[in-house]
Fold each of these.
Amino acid sequence: MNRATYYYHVKDREDKYADTKQKIRAIFAQNKERYGYRRVCLALHADGIVINKKAVARLMQEMGLYAKRRRVHYHSYKGEVGKIAPNILSRDFGAAAPNQKWTTDITQVDIKGQKCYLSPVLDMWNGEIISYTISNSPNLELVIRMMKKAVHNKNLNGLIMHSDQGWHYQHGMYQALLREHHIIQSMSRKGNCLDNSMMENFFGLMKKELLYVNQFESIDQFKVELQRYIKYYNNDRIKLRLKMSPVQYRAHYQNKIS
């Protein structure tokens, strides 16, 4: 085959799918980038365009069209690797005073392919973040450091500490730390996030008010802003049920009982 004939056939092959590519882009945009190649293929068939799904997948790959993926949530559950505590809290989130009911969990944040993990302790009485740690790894140290900061110089006899069934909270070192401070351990039922909804609500707020509305250039930048946000959340952000910030509510309570 001479050069002219070769390039004629190459050009013909390249242009063969020009109209189809344009239609694929339109379908992809109309569906807010949610369609993968299988659904795009069905939409093309509905428009009378005969093409197989492998060809659609190849064309979408060439055009750089990929369906949006849902955000991946961090799950620390790895089966029963230690002792599972009963669900003592049983969704009774009310507390009459500080340090009666605490809750904890871990959330993952991904910034440009880099991850960090936030592990806080929240007092259910006023929603205050009692302590927290941030790390690039969801290891046991993340949780142990958080708890040591939370229990420092406090009388916590009879406090209920609630969490999910994550492996950190089943670990003997974590459970020994609770026993040392006479803390009662409570765990959500497996796979039931509503059992720990107060912690989930805080994570949702943080991501809505900080993560999703800002552009971060690095994970380190996010960590700095996360610390500022937690300080703002505790000290300045008004909670509607309290009509003041968590720290202001605690100060108000202490003035009343003193």
Amino acid sequence: MKLNCNFQNLEQSYLFVTIAKKVNAYTAAHPENDLIRMGIGDVTLPLAPAVINAMHIATDEMAAKATFRGYSPDSSGYPFLRQAIAGYYGSFGVSLEPEEVFVGDGAKSDVGNIVDIFGDENTVLIPDPVYPVYVDTNIMAGRQIVYADANMNNGFLPMPNENQPADIIYICSPNNPTGAVYNKEQLTAWVDYALDQNAVILFDAAYECFVSHGLPRSIFSIPGAERCAIEFGSLSKTAGFTGLRCGYTVIKKELEFGGISVAKLWERRQGSKFNGVSYITQRAAEAVFTPEGQKQIRENIAYYKSNAQVMVEAMREMGLWFTGGENSPYVWFQCPNGMSGWEYFDYLLNEKEIVGTPGEGFGKNGAGCMRLSAFGDGEKTREAMARLKKG
């Protein structure tokens, strides 16, 4: 018996585990102090009333023999939810067929699992800095990884290099961790590059609900993307499902390689390894896309965007270089006085009692930067920014 030795190539301590250890040590030593957590991007507002009501109704259905449901008839999702998600895309101008939507238990799982359908010999292009799951998933499979440099000079929005071959391309917009958002022309360049390379774009749209000002919310708003892209959506940040777990993957019927349908491969993979999201959760998700649900979740999103605006104003007042915040729940900024991300993390924790996320945890190009999340309490966000501005 042999283990998968590629796991030995992973960083020994996951970023957020390291942060948790530092924070736990501080709170143990100072249990009476008021620590403001702006690190991990977890939501804090409760589920919308329309979602809760749908869950209650679905729970009651599960309590009666006539309406009880066991295994989902299709691991790809109940038709009512796939139709609702397709309708949601239609609301911002992207046409989908329900059969092109595959319901899963979150974007993180689907982004990690999708590479099961691609060969390990593929070259993977990943931006740096980056959400760690993209890197770790491919290290586990032993794939060759190359990086697209994101930095202050390009606004942390790297563009394709025609001289760099790639088979699998990761794009996250709005980006985690930097909050930067590609415009239509920039995404068009990536689609053209992928088509030229005969590559696939794995487009993480987990934060699309924060986008405004006419910027793209879906890769499928770009002509040609249907032939080279897979999109991942999440209800975690859209509707507060971080603890409930539900997301979706969109694969257009036009996406084929060597005459083989990618959607069919994904459907086969999920049928073998996944039994589907629970009925109660899917009914809750369906409620998100009703007019009442949309109104309620937009109120929650507006709350988080207000927090982000408070952070943006503080960055400007302090004269710090930053990106994100206006179309994203994250603000990514350069640490003051030439400090590294981890040095500034320790400073914020011990001197300001604020928890952020050091840029080094997202890759070498994150060095000297810090990520703050807008998903916290509004009053505490204002207090945290007041602490920062005191110097």
Amino acid sequence: MVPEFSDNTKGDAMSETVRWGILGAAKFAREHMGPALHLARRGSLAALATSNADKAAPFTSMVPGLRVHNSYDALLADPEIDAVYVPLPNHLHVDYALKALEAGKHVLVEKPLAMAAEGFEPVIAARDASGRLAAEAYMIVHHPQWQTAKALYQAGEIGRLVRVSGAFSYDNSQDIGNIRNTPNTGGGAVPDIGVYIYGATRFVTGEEPEEILSNEIRRENNVDVYSHITARFPSFHYTGVVSMRAAPWQDMTFHGEKGVMRLTAPFNPQVYGEARIELHLGQERRELRFPQVNHYVEQVEAFNRSVLDGDAYPCSLEFSQGTQRMIDRIWAAEGR
């Protein structure tokens, strides 16, 4: 089971909407999360922190009247901000999650929240002490394709699980200055996209890896650009490949004794392709389609409901920490 956020914000005096601020004008925030914060029900994008007027322009065009602070600290001190979204480079995530909680803000932090599992501990402690919601922005579990996949598996549609395979790749070899290609900003394929193929497996099955059996990692400039792992879970065998040096590809397959469940655009639906679940059950083939869902909006709306109504949040820090523990074990097994 996915651990749920145990709410201790219910009854907190707040407006009827969650007023959001963004730390930094990152490309991902501009293209995906900024629009999601603006469009999500029961929330509003109210402020941005950046000292670069050119980078602020797309946000202020999207949200007329958006307040622009010239420093992160100024936004964190803004009394009219309830929650903060942190899309900064990976190595800054823990520090700014803690600063947001210390400022009395709820906080949604891009994945990976921390570069090692122990890095989650101070954020969990600060979350509990502050009574605020803190979460990693692991958007896929909010998408109905993944909620449906989990329900189908738990209902026994494909029978006892035999194997799970996951793949996620793209090619950014020509963008050497990208933070994903830079070791001192926490770059690498595993931190960037490994979290999806590992966490999705844990989400659907509710199981944790018992052993990393093999791990082949290729590095450039001290950054992992390709990883192929095999692992043993209690009831199935796992194979996962991630790469920043291969043609774009996404696939998650759950292979059981009775059938196969495959997700064809598991991580970037609409961008990569239409979200579909294929069920291959002997001679029967079924297809479930989810053409219009924006999982970034779904994520923000779940966050807003948790803050305003005390609803359990679907992806706790403890769940995200479990995925990081798997990554830590992959690093420990490197070259074995």
Amino acid sequence: MARRKIIAGNWKMNMTPSEAVKLCAELKELVKNDDVDVVYCVPAIDIVPVVEAVKGTNVEVGAENMYFEEKGAYTGEISAAMLKDAGVKYVIIGHSERRDYFKEEDALLNKKVKKAFEAGLTPILCCGESLEQREMGVTMDWIRLQIKSDLVDVTADQVKELVIAYEPIWAIGTGKTATTEQAQEVCKGIRDCIAEMYDDATAAAVRIQYGGSVNAGNAAELFAQPDIDGGLVGGASLKADFGKIVNY
């Protein structure tokens, strides 16, 4: 059975609650598509109003981050149970901006992945290399290390429900996009890594997105690749073009 495409917008630190509701209204008709999964991953303060704003539509809501503890003295953090209760279905884990700016390491991300599954959330696990790493020829070594570290003690059945987002760091917000061949090569390498860690059936089931300056002009070519199952879209998810990407 063919894997169902998943197109997720990562709003990052954009959109006040009132702006978020307005954007949902503007995109409502543009993102209609029963053949793909559409997700808005929004800032924590926008989750409740966005969940309400997308009721009755084909859009699911995701969070941009979460903490692995259930409750307690963790000022400023949000738990998986809180997200689930608010109506969230997906959660981004390990985005390069979290890894870089906030020094999140793989051991922490592994705890987050397991806690997300435990709470009934679907993780969108991010991986990717820097320009320096690509030029050194260690792209797949680096990404395989991320995947293997982040999925320690995660079961095959869980991985089948997982979404992995390959985002070359050098292509995020820069306007540069990995060539279709580069994107497909790494996404296939990720699938091969999953097959080695688990089995062919698990590798065939896991959905792998490409992210990094995805836009209305390049979406169709990227998503046509055999190992690319959609996109994690940054800036373009905040405007009408997101509808064109969803309906590539």
